[in-house]
Records
---
Amino acid sequence: MKPEKKVAVVILGWNGKKYLEQFLPSVIQFTSSSLCEIIVADNCSTDDSVAFVKANYPTIRVIQNTRNGGYAGGYNDALKQVNAKYFVLLNQDIELTENWVEKVVDVMEADETIAAAQPKLRAYNQRDSFEYAGGSGGYLDKFGYAFCRGRIFDTVEKDEGQYDDVKEIFWASGACLFIRSDVYHQAGGLDEDFFAHQEEIDLCWRINSMGFKIVCVPSSVVYHVGGGSLPYGNPRKTYLNFRNNLMMLFKNLPASVLIWKLILRMILDGLAALNSVVSTKSFSDFNAILKAHFSFYASIPSLLKKRKAIAQKSSSKLFGKSVVWQYFVSGKRKFSEL
């Protein structure tokens, strides 16, 4: 079946009417109707998001998922019903800018080995700064810690054009993820056991292992609110991030380094849990991290099956140093200093 449009821009919504009201106008304004189909995939919202879209944006296609499978399951369910050469997985809390799609797709069209990409993400509420969830492209250090051009841990840089080159990266942010539809399906889509958080990094790891490239195209700029479904500092977010990171490492690390890297990560996670108690005078994050580890242990049998289904390869695309050491010991706060 020939795709009706080259690009499907798919916004996964969940109880996000306020974001749809705020940001759909920029989606309509800056998304080419000749190139793109705009779709809102609703994840069983209990507000009147669907009614709002249907009443106010009749040209937007609405897909109503029959379950709330989180980010991962929600997109897997919706994208089975979408026909396009490129998918764009777009968060509901993003403001777009002129030619944001064309600038990325042009780069991908020029190189068939590029399977996924992202624009530059700036913070909606601090517009001269990079945004935490993606900056100008994502990386992963040797022990599985994620960071970006423009953001390392909680240090976010101002965008002064220092990362404006098209650059191969390790992972593209799920807040605005461009991906070839055939590669998405070939890679098996998003891992639904993750539910939400770091599932796009896991998918990108598999894409890297398949021999494809992932890039950031900073000439395309979008503004992201962040924390639209789970706010920063929420223990549920802490739980998902720590659990999913361990699951991702278990799935994708080569057997030769798997055990010792996991043991070291567990030690570092323990230190992070203790630090959270000292810094916040609360046990909420400590308990979330503890719960994340026990959930990871329980998932090992299913993770062993997943390891057999994918290729674990040593990747030169991983950052070869410990970003924890670089940041906390060496005092390197900016990507350009690493």
---
Amino acid sequence: MSKTNCISRRSFLRTGAVLTASSAFPFLRVAGQVSPNEKVNVACCGIGNRGADVVNGLFGTGLCNIVAVCDTDLGAKHTQNILKKFPNAKRYKDFRKMLDEMGNQIDAVTAGVPDHAHFPIAMMAMGMGKGIYVEKPMAHTFQECALMMAAEAKNKVATQMGNQGHSDGNYFQFKTLVEQGVIKDVTKIVAHMNGVRRWHKWNGNVTSLRPKQDLPEGLEWDVWLSQAQWHDYHRDYVHGDWRCWYDFGNGALGDWGAHIIDTAHEFLQLGLPYEVDVLKMTGHTDFVFPMTCTLAFRFAARGNMPACEVQWWEGQKNFPELPKNFGKSKAAADIPTVGGGATAVADLNPGKEIYQKDGTIFKGASHGSTLSVVGGGRELPKFPKSPSNHFKNFLLGVKGQETCRSRFAVAGTLSQVLTLGCIAQKLNRKITLDTAKGAITGDKVADAMLKGPPPRKGWEQYYKV
């Protein structure tokens, strides 16, 4: 029996034992039974860079204890601040061992790890009845998103994807504008993120995977790869560069699309597109994302809402045509730097323009940024203030006091839209989707990419709900 299966079986048996023991020993913590007066016990996977931000964000609410930390490279420099801040948290390099050993002490889990590794952490956590917070995008493939939504529904746990604008002004304003009929009859949305990305340094000249390098001491490479097909270690796969590669990341679209398109997708009920078209691409390769790309996602009419095209513009100097009197979109304070530089790119911040049948055009930046009308001269309705930031909303969801605003049932379909865009980028051609069946038609290669390569041996169990 493989180590993975042993861990899974022990976890199942231990969870069952805890459920039985809790009747006799009411002080024993059981997932999903957090008292409103208790703090949530959180185990954190990925504790460097953005993962560290997630740990600090949750802890900063005052609603949780950090009881365990997990990172495949615990000795790395970028993990040290969290290790020093939480010296009493138990330390692991393998999330499976952590959950197996500490299942009865944990209420919720975080996944601040590379895109491809969100899925197994989330599936194991949900299967054990734990709340789960994952960074965006929700998962690496269309199928993984579907399975995570199904696991959420089956296990009835609190879930949250880390697009924090879903708990800020952007969310509450968009919701109010749609409910009051101010945003209506939207026919086109132009979304853009034109900053430098990590793969731009290679100038579209990647013609193969990287050659094998010596594995750094202390890095658990097998766990880092998780269910992904085997790749020999190379430094260009780690420390954020994983986002460059189709095999591990979801590019600029997965990174920023979840922040820019999110509220429009939810409140305009866009669902899945019937078509994703490649309007422009430069620097295409089979391995890393392109230098520039413009995609068109085409959504059918929904009820009394018309058909809508969502355009995505990425890459330096790949700017969409802006409406007259555009001015500038104001960036929100919660937007991180782009590629280590300023968030503003020329005169255009990452953001979107929303076009309506009546000629009204709204503009907004990313994350929590609110909308305004192009050309000004129109005061928009006031909207409610958020009762909780994204981290507090998740923890209150675990405690049963709020509904998570970017739960998998909401974020899952948006993330599937983003994975479809990544397929079109990799293949550099239009794809057509049967939205009812969730299948790409007329293109067997593209349709197979909805699932991606089969999981490596020992990781298959996470693909069952």
---
Amino acid sequence: MEVSVIYEDGMMGMVDPQRLQALIDADSIIKFQRSDGWVYPGIDPVRTASSGYQGPERRMN
């Protein structure tokens, strides 16, 4: 399942969940879309690799 993203240059794209995390970590996107709407990294809460989350990886489904 791919995720819609808006890059820093305003272009829209689709990325897989692993690439999404890399883009968030690199501050390369303005926003990405979840099922409940657009998320703005740095403003809205997002799960990061260093967040300590121990639950199942649901983004892969």
---
Amino acid sequence: MEQSLRNYLVVTGGYWAFTITDGAIRMLVVLYFHLLGYSPLQVAMLFLFYEFFGMVTNLVGGWLGARIGLNRTMNIGMAMQVVALLALTVPDSWLSVGYVMVAQALSGVAKDLNKMSAKASVKSINQSGKGFQPAEGSQSGEGSQPGEGSQPGEASLFKWVAILTGSKNALKGLGFFIGAGLLQWLSFRGGLAVLAGFLLVALLVTLWLLPSGVGKMKSKPKFTQVFSTIKAVNILSAARFFLFGSRDIWFVVGLPVFLYEKLGWDFYKVGGFLALWLIGYGIVQALSPKLLRQHHPTGASARYWALTLALFPAGIALALQQVLPADVVIIIGLILFGTVFAINSAIHSYLILAYSNHDKVAMNVGFYYMSNAGGRLAGTVLSGWVYQHHGLEGCLWWSFVFVLMAGLISFALPQQHT
């Protein structure tokens, strides 16, 4: 019991440390390159490799984690992030678009190795440790089928993965604040050096405390096995693609540019507002099990909440078309959208672990988060293109279509536990 809880805390602590640096480096790059004269759209394009290589990493990372253990892939990710941070401390003359995109690609690989490892580890630790079970002898077996079982272990899994994911998003928002503060107090390079040192310490602590072999398969999987053979995992992955694409279509480029250019907010106000939104989003995500009063969400839950979410981008777009006060519409709309989106994300994060066989959890989670990264990549590209041609309202209508697709795909998920 104590060992399982300690392992969970070590994994969570490492994930938290990484997440703070991930949010901070994004804010440092956005603010610093804005100061260098880059347009908001050009700044956003710096993150294309970050998303693309994150997608590739999730495909390969699950296979790698199953072969060498999730603790090792998590530590590899942390070490790569340290290198990515230090790579940006070079003189300004070196900071070409191509160079920064490569550094961000390294950071994207690091981020998704860390995320995949941390989330898959929760499943492995939860299954192996009695300390995560609220009742005796109630965990699903290695060969359980998707949608089976309403055991107390599933309630525990929903609770712990919601806390891990929600706290990550809240801390990423905190990282936005830390990044802006470091830029102001220590300059761009000084801030990056502090973040690299902080993460290096976290890496050494997790190397010392976390046991080896977490999530490692007994037999070495072939690379062709990275593509999931579980129908529910494939369907959920498709829904995840559209769910996260729906957020980034208007959130990555369209919204910050709109706030900056149309509403006249300064860059620090834009960054602070988005940071607060992300912190609130993470808090709601962590509280989702209590808000839903549901021990084990089902495919029906994913369908219902996705279709509910579709109302909000459409509602915001209609309100803007009616020439209502844009700042009020955006603030209220974002709060409502973020609340419902957080519940959707928490349900998805639980379902991917519930649908995964214990021995193959790393590979299933890796495949699933490849779809997540693919959706973010599509959303990032569309956000810039749609905003340039159709403005924020166009981004919102595209977001509506993507959420609707996620809801329709969710009809094919197992709709209830049997």
